[in-house]
Amino acid sequence: MKRVFVRWLTHRSRIPPVLRLSLAVVLAALAAVGLAAPASQGQQSLGGAPSGEVNPPSKSPEPPGPGDPTKTFPDSPALRIEGYNLYQQGCSSCHGISLEGTAGVAPSLRGVGAGPVDFYLSTGRMPLEQPREEPLRNEPAYDRSQIDALIAFISSYGGPAAPTADPSRGDLALGFHAFTLNCAGCHQIVARGGITVNAQAPDLEETTPQQIAEAVRMGPYLMPHFDATAIDQHTLDSIARYVLWTRHPDDAGGWGIYNIGPIPEGMVAWFIGLAALVLVARLIGERMDEPV
Amino acid sequence: MSHEEDPKPVTRAVKALGVLVALRAAARAVRSRTTEPPPRPPESEIDPRRRIVPANRRAETLVAGLILIAALFALAFTVIYIVSSDDTQLLGVAMGGALCLLAAACIVAGKFVVPQETHVEERGALLDEEQTGEAVGMIEAGGEGISRRALLTGAGGVAGVAIVTAAATPLASLGPTLKEFHETPWTRGTRLVDDQGRPFRADDIQIGSFYTALPEHGDPESLGAGVLVVRLPASYIHLPEARRDWAPEGILAYSKICPHAGCAIALYRYPTYAPTSQEPAFTCPCHYSTFLPGEGGRLVFGPAGRALPQLPLMVDGEGYLRAASGFHEDIGPSWWGIHRSQS
Amino acid sequence: MNLVERYVHRRFERASRSAEQRVGLAGAVKWALRYVFPDHWSFLLGEIALYSFMVLVVTGIFLTLYYVPSDAQVIYHGSYALLYGEQMSEAYRSVLNLSVDVPAGLLFRQVHHWAADVFIASIVLHLMRVFFTGAYRKPRDFNYFIGLTMLMLAILEGFAGYSLVDDLLSGMGLAIAYSVAMSIPFVGGQLASLVWGGPFPGRSVFWPRLEIVHVLIIPAALALLITLHLAMIMRQHHSQFPGPGRRERNVVGTPMWPAYALRSIGLMLAVGGVLFLLGGLIQINPIWQWGPYHPYLSENGAQPDWYIGWLIGALRLMPNWELVIAGRTVIPNPFWGGAAFPLFVFVVLFAWPAIERRITGDVLRHDLLDRPRDRPIRTAIGAAFLSWVVIVFAVGSTDRIFYRMGISYTTQIHVWRVGIWVLPILVFFITRSACRSLQRAEAHPLRAWQGNVVRRTPAGGVEVLSDSPDRSVPPISEPPVGTLPGSES
Q: Which of A142, B4, B157, B328 is spaced 20 to 30 A from A36 at the CA atom?
């Protein structure tokens, strides 16, 4: 059944772009009604049998809380058209000609909104070479204006506004506390990254506050996401501030040896401390007047 | 050669054989008379003793210089301590530098200034048969004239055991009964709150997110306090029959403490797109035991010997999450007296 | 002698006589001044450990004046902004204050921690020297046992030390230690209850108990054993490598006074200097970055200090076996990696001298050491055993490196579960053949050996090979009193 539906969609790709764009707007309106409705309801319908949708993602991005600041990306018909073209070249083979996704390969992008698109593209995690590959931070495949174009196109299908975070409004102590409780289990306490069974949690040394906000609300790949009840905007700002702080933590004790604890410490103990002392012992222990 | 103990017969035979071989080699050497250089003495018979007195003014100056610079560093430590006592780096360099320079002075002095001597000391035999025999005799002589030796030894032994037992008994007061090991702060009706004490509503729990909950009015520092709360779509939930009511609205709670080695489970994965990635699971960051929340905490990877204990939930009239009962099995690491899950 | 020197000499003589009238030890002092230390750098590894212990005692006294052994929960209102308003135990707060506010407090804490890491590392290196040179043979087997006991105590001591802080990292470590204690068959619950006073994280009494174990009981035991260790060395004299003039029944080297004393004091100061430089320049265990521990918190990539690392590796490698009989958990899983594995390693180390005696039948006293290559089988067994432990150690910490190389964690574990048995066997054969070819190829790499290599001629005589010196097998300077199978060349 799904395959027939996909083929039907594929067939429609011969329709001129302008017509498709207007259709996209209609679809976006539909998506706005269907998806951006009360979040909890929408989510509960996701798990069971997805009825109206082709290939929904298994978890949808959480919207920013009511009244919370959002990130606005540039938008214009020309940008959407550019985005459409880029999408057809680089994304449609997996995510479908009209964002419907491909069963077993990639989820539908309808209604995901701007945040996930910005996150995956600006961190270089998309496009993937293989659908089952773990998306990892990479050199972005698109420049900023191309990303904006893709955002304009994909978010024209609706979806929540992109969240944002302002570290300057955050509280460092609160950020440390919230990071410990929610993030350190995967990303390590000083955000140096970690691994789990067959996936890795990246270090956060290059992540921007914008990407932090997007990741917290959407939960990229296997990461859980957090809504505005679990992590409110102030906490989000604080976490972003803490993550920025971890780039240059207060290493009052000297060289921080990457702030990951005992592994480098053990190496220093053996290969610097003990090695130096063995060298001293070597100097002391052999006599100069002995035949060498 | 040592005469401390009789070598085993085999060793003796080997030695005898060795002597024979040596004799034969010697005989042949005498017979052949080749153009050998004059034999050198065996290595062990060289006299290594020597004494050199290095008259070395330059080394003495060096040592004096090192000591003086070390004194400067040590002085600097005090100055830094007074001026900026929180600069660990400067303090460390001052003290470490002073010690290293003194070390260098000592080593240079030890090797180039004071007399260099190689000395030979004979090793005495450790076992002196005569002395040992006498010592044994002297000890045994202390029991001369005692007729009921066995009785006395036995009585002493009994008293010794009794006193040691008496001395060890107070150790028992260190530990209370093991009853507490089966207890957690969770009972029927306990509300789930976050680490700030705010109660969780069922509506707060989103699919794809995870929450750390603590028992309202319970000690958050106790091992059983922390629970993980997640909501799963129905397609992932395959609970055993007996646990059917434990997950209202698809919300599940599990002990946060790994049943392997007691670490807090702080990794939760939830796929963005299920067909291309892994199913939702909890993973312990210490030894990577991985549990499926949808299947009653079943272990799918790692060293844990049992499933993650599940806490039955209910939603009250106001929409708050409450424990439907305490845990049905013991949380935390396994041990001899642990109550394991029956299901 | 000038006037000053003569004056000093007279004063010194008078002081000595005055002391002698009271203690009467001139004979012993004379003996000690002439006591001979054989010269070889590897004999100083134990001294590095000794001097690290002294640094530990000195810095530890400083730290213990500030530490508060209490799990009472307090709200932090100190000067460290990131933890302001955070709930933590009094123990953690006291160490935080020590690190942030006490002048030179952080320096002493870091020196103490580095000293602990170097202390145990030097003990392990010393143990390796003792093993591979056969220094554990009679009459030194007793002392070898004392050394092993001290290694076990040192590991416990180190673990207790960093656990006192009650930061996130050490709290996770304590939870694992608790699980291992609980996992001991039959008595685990009682044992854990004895140590912690109740279920983890334990009653308040646990903290003073842990502190007294760390600052008094184990250090006192270590000090006692160190004294015994040194007294036995003095009684037996040091072992030595074979060399010119060196025989089983003598000891050749530098007398204590003056050259050796100066060198040894130099080494002591160097240990202190290196540890202070490390403590000042390289950060260790920044507890303010880890934050306080609560049982419901954990972080990714948490590791113990290096000397516990072999246990985390064993815990991770172990399949999820748990022996349950009639509803009773007889052997819980952490027992395998956390208790049985280290127990096995130490039992093997303790039993080795007896095992070797049984194999070789060599029950004699040995004061001359073996070069590792001259005992290929022993060296190969030692290297294989060491590699076995080192692989387990590595599995505990290299997961991230291998993951970055694209090897999934599950694959890693499955590969290592096989590799742990295969690699040591390879190491055994490689080491044995390396020893044998070294034996054949040359003499001591540093010291020319005086001798000739001869070849039997067809006529029945011997001829000296032209490239004789330096390329020959050194004879053992006294008749071998026992050899391992395969060591005969």
A: A142
